[in-house]
Design a protein that fits this description.
Blueprint (H helix, E strand, L loop, with lengths): L6 H4 L9 H20 L8 E5 L7 E3 L15 E3 L15 H13 L5 E5 L2 H7 L10 H5 L4 E4 L11 H8 L4 E4 L3 E6 L2 H22 L10 H15 L4 H17 L9
Parallel strand pairs: 5-6
Antiparallel strand pairs: 1-2, 1-4, 2-3, 4-7, 6-7
Helix pairs in contact: 3-6, 4-7, 7-9
C-alpha cells in the first residue's frame, strides 16, 4: 500500500519504554487529531478523542489539555488510567471532561476501544433539535437504530452524570448529547472516524435540507431496514474504514503543502 506520510511512516520506531503496539496507536491517534483540525472539527483546546491501550491495565490515550489538535504528536499524547490519572510524566494535564465522558464509556463498554466527541456546528445544531437526528437522508438512513440520546445536564464536570450518560448510549454506537454535541464509539480509530464522518455528513445534510422551503421526503421503515442490512454488508468488506482514513491522511498531508505532519493550509 502507498505511504500516507502518516506519523507511523515518519516515526516507525517506538521510543524506549513504549511498546511497539502502543506507539502504533499513538501515531494513528496523532494522525486523527491532526485530521480533525484539517477538517475543522475542533473546538479550540477542548473535546477529546481517546483510544484504549491493549492490555489488562485498562489504560487509554487522549489529547493533552492545553494543546490545539494540530499540535498533538505521538510523543505528547497522554496515557491515563480508567480514573483519569496520568501514567508517567507530562508537561500537560488531562481535562476533567475527558475522564467524565470518555472514562465512563471506556469503563462500561468493552467494545468501545475508541471514543470521539466533537462540537461541530452541524452536530450541535442537530443536538439542539427536539426531533434529533433525521434518518431521511442518505447518511442519516445508515444510522437508523444506532443512535441514543442524552439530555443536557450542564458542562460535563459532574461524576454523577456518568451512569445516565452510559445508560443513554446503551449498546448504540452514536450518542446525541442534547444541546451539547455528538459522540461516537468504535473498535478502532479508522472505523470510529468513519462513523463520525457519516454522522457529520448526516447532520450537514439535515441542516442544509432544513434551510430549503418545503417538506422533506420521509423514508419508510422498510427502506430504513433494508438500508441497515446493505450498509452493514458494505462496511464489512474491503477494509472500507481503513482505506478511507488513510486516504484522508494523504489528502491532509498533500493539501497542507509544507510537509509538516500537523500544519494546516
Amino acid at each position: 500500500m502507498a505511504m500516507t506520510d502518516s506519523w507511523a511512516d515518519r516515526r516507525p520506531d517506538a521510543p524506549p519504554r513504549i511498546s511497539g503496539e502502543e506507539w502504533a496507536l499513538r501515531c494513528q491517534l496523532a494522525d486523527c487529531f491532526n485530521l480533525f483540525y484539517f477538517l475543522g472539527w475542533t473546538e479550540a483546546i477542548f473535546n477529546h478523542i481517546t483510544v484504549r491501550v491493549p492490555g489488562a491495565a485498562r489504560h487509554y490515550l487522549l489529547n493533552p489539555f492545553g494543546l490545539l489538535y494540530e499540535e498533538v504528536t505521538p510523543d505528547n499524547i497522554l496515557k491515563v488510567d480508567i480514573d483519569g490519572h496520568i501514567i508517567g510524566v507530562s508537561a500537560y494535564p488531562a481535562n476533567l471532561a475527558g475522564y467524565i465522558i470518555h472514562g465512563a464509556i471506556h469503563a462500561a463498554r468493552e467494545d468501545a476501544h475508541c471514543v470521539m466527541h466533537v462540537h461541530t456546528d452541524a452536530g450541535m445544531a442537530v443536538a439542539c433539535k427536539a426531533a434529533g437526528l433525521s434518518h431521511d437522508n442518505f447518511y442519516g438512513a445508515q444510522l437508523a437504530g444506532h443512535v441514543g440520546y442524552h439530555d443536557f445536564e450542564g458542562v460535563a464536570s459532574n461524576i454523577d452524570e456518568r451512569p445516565r450518560m452510559v445508560a443513554a448510549l446503551g449498546d448504540k454506537d452514536v450518542l446525541i448529547m442534547r444541546n451539547h454535541g455528538v459522540l461516537v464509539v468504535g473498535p478502532d480509530v479508522p472505523r470510529t472516524f468513519r462513523l463520525l464522518w457519516t454522522l457529520q455528513r448526516a447532520c450537514e445534510i439535515q441542516a442544509a435540507a432544513g434551510a430549503i422551503a418545503g417538506p422533506d421526503i420521509t423514508l419508510s421503515d422498510a427502506v430504513l431496514r433494508n438500508t441497515a442490512i446493505t450498509h452493514a454488508k458494505f462496511e464489512a468488506t474491503d477494509r472500507i474504514a481503513e482505506l478511507q482514513f488513510a486516504a484522508m491522511i494523504r489528502r491532509m498531508r498533500r493539501e497542507t503543502g509544507t510537509g509538516h505532519p500537523h500544519t494546516n493550509r
